[in-house]
Amino acid sequence: MIRHARLSDLQQIRYLAQTQFAPYANRVSGPREPMSADYRDMVDAEHISVYVVENAVRGFVCYWIDGPDVHVEALALAARARRKGAGRMLLDHVDRQGLRAHCRRLIFHSNAQNFENLAYFRGKGLQETDRRIDNGYERIVMERYLR
After folding, report:
1. Helix, strand, or coil here: 2?
2. Nearest CA to 63 among 97, 23, 28, 88?
3. Which DSSP string do the residues of 93-108 spell out, in sequence order?
4. Which of 8, 46, 55, 120 is the most interior residue, by most CB within 10 Å?
């Protein structure tokens, strides 16, 4: 089941962020954005949706809508939820939210050192559209039209 995150999910969201972004975090100097994000504010703003199985959060996606675009900042899945379609379900959920808000594009923002996420999103049809330095980090922007 996919639903908006609740404050009661925060501990599980933070745990997933810490464990699932750890391989990438070792490649980046300074604070690791997905690992140090203020998830409480994002939950309050309904910018996080969770994938729940048997009352446990097995994945989450952080996103927000800005005019004609829906932006994805982070997607994390527990190891046991991978390769079972959970990531696709979360992205489909974001697509539906964007389409309901009349968005045209899904835009993904990532640190250039997060090779795993970049490969995953390329496989989901997103194409790199920009590279820039943002707050001292090399960021990659990828996008695709909503379907």
Report:
1. strand
2. 97
3. HHHHHHHHTT--EEEE
4. 120
**Model confidence, pTM:** 0.84
Determine the 3-state secondary structure of 51 from DSSP: strand
- 89-141 pLDDT per residue, tens: 999 999 999 999 999 999 998 888 788 778 888 998 999 999 998 877 788 99
Torsions phi, psi for 78 (to 5 deg): -65, 150
Residue 102: partners with Cβ closer than 8 Å, 6 or more residues away: 68
How confident is the model at residue 147, as a pLDDT?
75
Band of the pLDDT at 35, cuts 50, 70, 90?
A: very low
Sheet holding 105-111, edge to edge: 2-4, 48-53, 56-66, 69-77, 105-111, 137-145, 127-134
CATH 3.40.630.30: does it fit domain 2-145?
yes
Please report, for the chain, the start and end positions of each structural domain, with discontinuous segments joined by +: 2-145
62 near 48, Cβ under 8 Å? yes
Q: What residues form DSSP beta bridges with 50?
A: 3, 60
3-state secondary structure of 27: coil
